[in-house]
Design brief:
heterodimer, A: alpha/beta, Rossmann fold, 6-stranded mixed sheet, 4-stranded antiparallel sheet, globular, B: mainly alpha, two-stranded antiparallel ribbon, 70% helix, binds adenosine-5'-triphosphate, binds magnesium ion
C-alpha cells in the first residue's frame, strides 16, 4: 500500500506470560515476546507446537487464560476480534480461509468490513497494483483460484483492513518454491511500506532467511529467540528443523 | 398467487437454516404473529393491511433479533436436536400466548376493497391477490439486492461460507447472527401480514406454513434467494393446479387441500431425486 496510509513506528507488541488454549486444554505456557514497529519477526516450530494458537490468541479467537498482550497501550488479551482488527492487528489465517463463493472483489471488501472511511476503493486499486494477477481474477469466485492466487487474495484481504501488524500463518504451505519466492517479494514490499510482520512458518529455512528476528516455539513454550541469522547457524536449530 | 407469500416465508426460513444452521420450528408461529399484528392494527386503527407489512416486518425483526441474542445464540453450535427442542418449545409458548391474547376465535382482515376484482381473458383476478403477489415479489427483490449489495448482506453471505474467517475480518458474529435471525422472523412477519388478506386467522394457522416453508426451501436450495423465490412460485403453482383436481386413489376420494399437500410432496421428492441440491442450489462445496 502506501506510506501515508499505514503510519510506521505506530505501536509495538508486547506479550507477557501468555497462557491460552482450548477449554481445559492449555496449549501455550507463559509465552512472552516482543515485536518492535517495523520489524519482520518469524515464529517457527514443529507441527502442533502452538503457533496458530498463539496467533489465534493475538486475534482474539482463542481464549486467553492469563497474561497480557499489549499493542501500543491497548490491551488485546480478552478483547473482541473486531476491536483487535480495528487496533490494526490483522491475521492471514492458515489455509487461507477465503470466502470461496464470493468473488475476489467481495473477499477484499470483506477485509475492509470495519472501515468507514472513503478510501476503501483507492485501497482496492492499491491492492490490485501490488497484486496484478488479482485484477484478471477480480470477479471470479475465490474458491476457483489456484493455491498461489488464493494466498494472494488472503494477503490482500488482510491489507484491506489497513494493518499495522500483519500476522501471517503458514503462507508457504502447499505452494511451489517459485510461488513462495513471489509471495515473499510481495511481503517485502508490504513491509517496506511500514507494516510490521509476524510470520509463522514450518519452512524454517525460508522464514529465517526472510525475517530479522525469530522465536522458536516448542510444545507451547518459547525455547529460543534471537536474530534470525544467528538462529540459522545454531547447531540445535540446524539439527531439529533444517535437517542438517 | 399464494406462491409469492410462500416465497417470502420460505426466504426467511431459508436464511436462518442456511446461515445459522437452525431449522426454526417456530417459523410458522412467527408468520401467525405477523398476521395477528396486521389484524390488530386493522381492527384498532383501521390501518390498511398492506401498510402493516413493513410494520409487521419491523416488529418481528426486533423480536427475532432479541430472541436470537438472548436465547437461541446459546444453541447455534449445539446439536440439531437442541435447536429443535428450543424452537419447538418456543412455538408452543407463542401459540398459547396468542390464544390468551387473541383467543382461539377465527379472525379475518377484510378491508373495503377485498372483494374487488377484474377479468382478463375470461379469468377473474381479485385485486388483493395481485397486489399481494406484487408486494411479495418486491420484498424478495429488495432482500436479494440487500444481500448482494450491502456490507452487512455480504457479511451474512460470507459467514455462511466461513464463520471463523468472517470473525477475523472483524465481523461481530453474535450480532450478525442476530440480524440474520431477525430477518428470518421479519420475513415471516411480512408473509403473515400478506396472508391475513386471504386467509382467516387463528393461533395455530402457522403450522402448515412451517411445513410449506420447509418444502420450498429444500425445493429451491438452501440459503438462496432465487431458490426461495423459484421454489415458492413453483410450489404455489403446483398447489393451485392440485386444488382444481379431483381424483380417486385406491378408493379414497381426494380433492382440494388434501390433494395439494400430497402433490406438493411428490413434486419435492421428484426434484430432490433429480437435483439433490434443489432447483437453484449449487453443488455442495
Ligand atoms: N480447535 C482446537 N481445539 C482443541 N485443540 C486444538 C484446536 N486447535 C488446535 N488444537 C491443539 O493445540 C495444539 C497446537 O495446535 P496449533 O494449531 O496451534 O499448532 P501449530 O503450531 O500451528 O501446528 P501446525 O504446524 O500444524 O499448524 C495441538 O496439539 C492441537 O491439537
Ligand atoms: Mg498452525
Amino acid at each position: 500500500m502506501n506510506l501515508e496510509a499505514t503510519p510506521t513506528g505506530s505501536a509495538s507488541l508486547t506479550v507477557r506470560d501468555l497462557r491460552a488454549g482450548y477449554g481445559d486444554v492449555r496449549v501455550l505456557w507463559d509465552v512472552s515476546l516482543e515485536i518492535e514497529p517495523g520489524e519482520v519477526v518469524a515464529l517457527v516450530g514443529s507441527n502442533g507446537a502452538g503457533k496458530s494458537t498463539l496467533l489465534g490468541a493475538l486475534s482474539g479467537i482463542v481464549s486467553v487464560e492469563s497474561g497480557s498482550i499489549l499493542f501500543g497501550d491497548v490491551e488485546l488479551a480478552g478483547a473482541a476480534t473486531d476491536r483487535i482488527v480495528h487496533a490494526g492487528v490483522v491475521q492471514v489465517p492458515q489455509g487461507r480461509r477465503l470466502f470461496g463463493g464470493l468473488s475476489v472483489r467481495e473477499n477484499l471488501l470483506m477485509g475492509a468490513y470495519l472501515r468507514t472511511d472513503r478510501e476503501v476503493h483507492a485501497d482496492l486499486e492499491r491492492c490490485l497494483a501490488l497484486l496484478p494477477r488479482l485484477r484478471e481474477r477480480y470477479e471470479f469466485p475465490a474458491g476457483r483460484l489456484s493455491g498461489g492466487e488464493q494466498q494472494q487474495v488472503a494477503i490482500a484481504r488482510a491489507l484491506m483492513a489497513r494493518p499495522k501488524l500483519l500476522l501471517i500463518d503458514e503462507m508457504s504451505l502447499g505452494l511451489a518454491p517459485v510461488l513462495v519466492d513471489q509471495l515473499l517479494g510481495i511481503l517485502a514490499q508490504i513491509h517496506a511500506q511500514g507494516v510490521t510482520i509476524l510470520m509463522v512458518e514450518q519452512d524454517v529455512q525460508t522464514a529465517l532467511e526472510f525475517a530479522g528476528r525469530a522465536y522458536v516455539l516448542e510444545t507451547g513454550r518459547i525455547v529460543k529467540s534471537g536474530p534470525a541469522a544467528e538462529l540459522l547457524d545454531d547447531p540445535s536449530i540446524k539439527r531439529a528443523y533444517l535437517g542438517i | 398467487m399464494a406462491g409469492g407469500i410462500l416465497a417470502v416465508a420460505a426466504l426467511g426460513f431459508s436464511l436462518v437454516w442456511g446461515i445459522l444452521n437452525i431449522i426454526n420450528l417456530a417459523h410458522g408461529t412467527f408468520i401467525m404473529l405477523g398476521a395477528y399484528i396486521t389484524w390488530q392494527l386493522f381492527t384498532s386503527f383501521h390501518l390498511d393491511p398492506f401498510l402493516s407489512v413493513p410494520i409487521a416486518f419491523a416488529i418481528m425483526y426486533g423480536f427475532g433479533y432479541v430472541l436470537q441474542r438472548g436465547l437461541i445464540n446459546q444453541v447455534v453450535r449445539a446439536p440439531i436436536l437442541a435447536t429443535f427442542l428450543l424452537t419447538f418449545g418456543l412455538s408452543l409458548l407463542l401459540v398459547n400466548l396468542a390464544l390468551i391474547v387473541w383467543t382461539g376465535d377465527t379472525r379475518a382482515v377484510s378491508p373495503a376493497y377485498s372483494g374487488a376484482n377484474f377479468t382478463v381473458a375470461g379469468v377473474t383476478v381479485p385485486w388483493t391477490k395481485l397486489a399481494t403477489l406484487g408486494a411479495a415479489l418486491l420484498i424478495t427483490a429488495l432482500m436479494h439486492v440487500w444481500l448482494v449489495r450491502s456490507k452487512l448482506g455480504r457479511a451474512i453471505r460470507a459467514m455462511a461460507m466461513d464463520v471463523g474467517a468472517a470473525q477475523l475480518a472483524g465481523v461481530r458474529v453474535a450480532h450478525v447472527y442476530a440480524v440474520t435471525f431477525g430477518l428470518g422472523a421479519g420475513l415471516a412477519g411480512a408473509a403473515g401480514a400478506l396472508l391475513s388478506l386471504s386467509y382467516s386467522l387463528n393461533p395455530s394457522m402457522g403450522e402448515p406454513f412451517l411445513i410449506k416453508s420447509f418444502v420450498v426451501c429444500v425445493l429451491g436450495g438452501l440459503g438462496s434467494v432465487q431458490g426461495a423465490l423459484v421454489g415458492g412460485l413453483v410450489y404455489g403453482i403446483v398447489e393451485s393446479f392440485a386444488s382444481q383436481l379431483d381424483v380417486t386413489v385406491l378408493g379414497q376420494h381426494l380433492s382440494g387441500s388434501g390433494l395439494q399437500d400430497v402433490i406438493a410432496l411428490v413434486v419435492l421428492l421428484v426434484v430432490l431425486v433429480a437435483r439433490p441440491t434443489g432447483i437453484m442450489g449449487r453443488a455442495a462445496a
